[in-house]
Structure formats: structure tokens, C-alpha cells
Amino acid sequence: MKPFFIAILLLNGVRCTPTTVYICNNPGTTRYHLTKNCRALGNCSHRIVSVSLEKAKSMNLTLCKWEK
Ligand SMILES: [Zn+2]
């Protein structure tokens, strides 16, 4: 039973979670973004870079408030 549920969770995670996210490459940044066109990124005065979601989370970034 247990491996079955874990497999479902993994599949859902893959479907709902994009693997690439965008961040403003600013030392004080606290958010990551699902799209490059996010309005919060429009305020970015640094370079916008794409990183993996795992990397963004490892940097303690949280999902942008506009994209929740
Ligand atoms: Zn955003």
C-alpha cells in the first residue's frame, strides 16, 4: 500500500511543480517566479536568471506572492 501512495505523490509533484523557476539575481532576493513575465520581475534591476526549483528552495526562496 505505502509505495503506491508515494508513487501517486511523486507523480502529482512532477505534474504540478515546474522544474525551472526564475529569480532576480539580486543578493537580497527572497522570491522565485514561475514565469519570466511575472510583474514582480518587472521591478528587478538586476539580471533575471533561471534556476531549478530545488536550487531556489535550497536558497530559502519562497514562491512569489503574485503566483500563489
Ligand atoms: Zn513572480
Structure description:
This protein is α+β, with helices and mostly antiparallel strands. It has one domain. Helix content is 31%, strand content 21%. The chain has helices at 2-16, 53-58, and strands at residues 20-24, 31-32, 48-52, 62-63. Strands 1-3 form a two-stranded antiparallel ribbon. It has a two-stranded parallel sheet with strand order 2-4. It starts with a helix and ends in a 5-residue tail after the last strand.
- Give Rg in angstroms: 14 Å
The total number of structural domains is 1
Biggest sheet architecture:
2 strands, antiparallel
Helix-strand topology string:
HEEEHE
Shape summary: elongated
Number of helices: 2
Estimate what percentage of residues fall within beta strands: 15-25%
The average pLDDT value, as a whole number, equals 86
Write the layout of secondary structure elements.
Blueprint: H1 2-16, E1 20-24, E2 31-32, E3 48-52, H2 53-58, E4 62-63
Parallel strand pairs: 2-4
Antiparallel strand pairs: 1-3
Bound molecules: zinc ion.
Produce a short descriptive summary.
The protein has helices at 2-16, 53-58; strands at 20-24, 31-32, 48-52, 62-63.
What characteristics describe this protein?
68 residues; alpha+beta; elongated; 21% strand; 31% helix
